Fold each of these.
Amino acid sequence: MNEIEIASDTIRVSDEYHPSYSSPSADIVLLSEDGVKFRVHSSILGTASKFFNDMFRMPRSSAENRDDALPMGESSEILKTLLDIIYPHDTNPVLPSMSFAFVRRLLSAAEKYDLARVTHYVQLVTKTEPFLSRPLEVYALACIFGWTEEAHRLSLQTLNLDLSSPTYEEILTSIDSASLYKLFQLRWKIKKEMAQAVQELDSEEIDEMRRCYCSNFPRGHTEAWECLEMFIRGELDKYPDGSSLRHPKFWSHGGLDKLWNLKCNICDEPVVRKSGVNEYIIDILDHGMPDF
Ligand SMILES: [Zn+2]
């Protein structure tokens, strides 16, 4: 081991090269933050990156040795992953971690060193599991790295997430305020649309929602209808895509019994058909939502 001085920090540098990148035919040495050396081919780096291409075209000082290490300011794990992606290996590169923090760091390094192939590869990976199940993380990456088209599509996939859950705190704080605003605006829009439809429920003359036809649809029982509205708003706060309203559990909640038990003042039978209201709300979810 020997010591090397980099930006006032002294790090321990191994005399050995990383076993995957130690070819004697390679002409450049990259050094990771944690002191691991990678012997690599300038031709491969230069082809993959304009940054390196420009750098290698600069005249090198005669005092420089081909074994002088180039400090990269990245961990050995990130550096190896970058190289695994840009080198023409026989097998597909594997990301050593699928965590949000790692992928974000990898994309930052790719951006810093102008490695478009790395960005492209990671974008493909985020279209597979486990990222398919983590749309908020991919939305955050799309916002951070300017994948504009992706961001919109992904924002729609985040609708059934409860963003108030502490699970999402780290990811939400990584998103810029304009993108965060868009994410919430989408939710407000849906909630407003649904609240409006629910408010109009007690004045709707919809046969499927009636159980008796003695008189007009019961008005003046606004308290019971308001209760339904309040419940629906609560569910949309948690799941703005309305997915929980599709669940029978929502409709069997005891808090709604008052509405289902509303009696007709002529025949004394219940007047509101639960299944009819349920179907009406689901129909709004299916067809009446705002276009994005
Ligand atoms: Zn009646």
Amino acid sequence: MSTAPASASGAAPTRKAASAPASPEAGAPTGTAAALGPSFDGVAPVLPPATRPAPAVRIDGVSKRFGSGPVVLDDVSLEIQAGEFVCLLGASGCGKSTLLNLIAGLDQPTAGRIQTPDAGSAVMFQESALMPWLTARRNVELALRLRGVPRADRRDKALSLLDAVNLADAADKRPHELSGGMRQRVALARALAQDRPVLLMDEPFAALDAITRDLLHEELERVWRATGRTIVFVTHNVREAARLGQRVVLMGSRPGRVVQEWRIAKTAGRRIESPEVAALSVEITDQLRKEIRRNAA
Ligand SMILES: Nc1ncnc2c1ncn2[C@@H]1O[C@H](COP(=O)(O)OP(=O)(O)O)[C@@H](O)[C@H]1O
Ligand SMILES: [Mg+2]
């Protein structure tokens, strides 16, 4: 369902609420019997059951108001498949954090429903929020302890998680001895230590310099591919969304809602300076500007 013009970036734009399944639609008689021709006339092809995998996160007609204030989110619907990497993109104040908090179960919608896996989600914010008196390893061990991992296993597990985010050498350092990028790596290791199927990230790299951010994009992508986590990544940075997402969901403001989304077929090997990332960024920025102008009118 593509209602927008052909994409210069090769990403497929889809309009609001276009939540196509990750797997091909079941039901079309394209099986062997159909292909074998007349001698199989009258033999009904065995069709796969018309099921699609349950989405990891289903947001269904969600609206949100705080008290008697304005409507912050208006009728947002979105399905996120297990293992998908979705970027929620929008101008500041459009309701991205509000939506993420609702997915995390930290707040309740005014209307609509949100379904998430029973095992819940881990959340990572712009500030690492590490315990300042604990070393990097101990910060990760704390999350393991809260998850019920036996004491004897925690040290090794914490070290391997820190290794996964390229921070094994800094395991014994306290947060004040670490750079901003290193602290966010610890926060990522800690989020992974919670071992939840969904990872919710609210502008986690917004305070980092561009070079560190590029590195962390690579780390996060590697972690995503290795762990199969479902990631919902909030950002106001168009380039970051185009660099990271398998899907980029653009939100409009006042009230916050889903305006358009793009699916990126080939995500391997992308870098922030890749031509396809630049082309997609231009396309998304054009759409974002239209939204901002529409709001200003
Ligand atoms: N707890 C709250 N109480 C009242 N208003 C809120 C609260 N949280 C967010 N808002 C309002 O909701 C709107 C969206 O905020 P937010 O979700 O933080 O936007 P974003 O993350 O996209 O920058 C803003 O106008 C903000 O002031
Ligand atoms: Mg926010």
Amino acid sequence: MVQYTENQKSIAEKIDTDTVISNWKNWKWQLKHSIQDIDTFEHLLDIKFPPEERKELEKTLAKFPLSVTPYYLSLIEAEDYKNDPIFLQAFPSPSELILNKCEMNDPLSEDEDSPVPGITHRYPDRVLFHISNTCSMYCRHCTRKRKVGDRDSIPQKDEIVEGLKYIHSHPEVRDVLLSGGDPLMLSDDYLDWILTELDQIPHVEVVRIGTRMPVVLPYRITDNLVNMLKKHHPIWLNTHFNHPREITTSSKQALRRLADAGIPLGNQTVLLAGINDCHRIIKSLIHKLVHNRVRPYYLYQCDMSEGLAHFRTPVGKGIEIMENLIGHTSGFSIPTYVIDAPGGGGKIPVMPNYMVSWSTNKVILRNYEGVITSYKEPDSYEAIFCDRNCDDCKLQLKLDDAQEYKAIGISKLLSDHDELVSLVPEDTDRMERRNGE
Ligand SMILES: *Cc1c(COP(=O)(O)O)cnc(C)c1O
């Protein structure tokens, strides 16, 4: 039985004097009573912003709207709200209006890599499918801030049908990431329909759901939802915890339900200045995650989206955090630290260097303690020349359905079967001279 905190009782009573506390766990009640203005925010938390600050806040809200579930609000500790990690993720800051030159509306060029509305097809074998542009909570650090609260960009059913058609006609797509917005804002029936459609596409091997519901509205993870999801296995789910304080009795229960339904759980954390840019906080977070059967998946460098400058840290902070994790704690609890390349290059992993030096037959490595060690490579190794003719190869791939992809990028340079020796940017002066421009 979940006990309610003092905060939760006090907020529930203020929202609605007739409210019986049992409504608190009804996700629709939570959505209906989402906090979207400063007055209510002040009233529920018993805080008061200074008048000059309020003016700035109103300006921020006009550009980037506010919406917080009563549940997520109840996690704020009002005494020191200014440094509270929940408050900072939920409540606007006038800094959001500061626009730096390098910042972009769509830093990841998701719209450019979009063959049909709602689909971002960036990688060879997987697509991002935006099936909802609304969320139960508007994260202040949202990379898709450009779309938050924009009603026009809520996809219509015919748009979803177009997306499904695209996936249908692209047999290389074996992994579909349902994203948004938050896909779990859709009703169980509607989601059931989308998942059923995806089930019928033979080349789709796995569906992933990206949702922040276990963090900001754990009551959305109902038995009904979970029973529906498990009809569509294999379903994987990634959620978005940023701070150990977000792991509560209610969120643990949501995670337990999902894990018990056989849904492998992952977590994506964004490195946020003033919120979690500390290796002890990240370590505590990942330990709590694995304790609740969630595998830390990515730690993201904060994107260069408009209005996020105050959340960004140097990359060195992320490397320092990784240095404090690798070797120090269980390997399976360590996320991959990635920078999502501006301009649409995708996620690029970065980590401390472990390779110290290399000769023709030895590699020199260092470990997390500073031990320097050497690994001797074999004296002889019979490399197998790869001409991509797997049927005649002595290595037995022997999978009828093994798909062949053309080599791209660095793997093309590495390959034996392709003559390409260098990748050269097209627009250098040298190349332009060659082309007689
Ligand atoms: C993150 C992302 C994916 C999935 O990447 P994984 O590394 O497979 O998790 C796919 N498409 C786009 C556009 C993405 O941003």
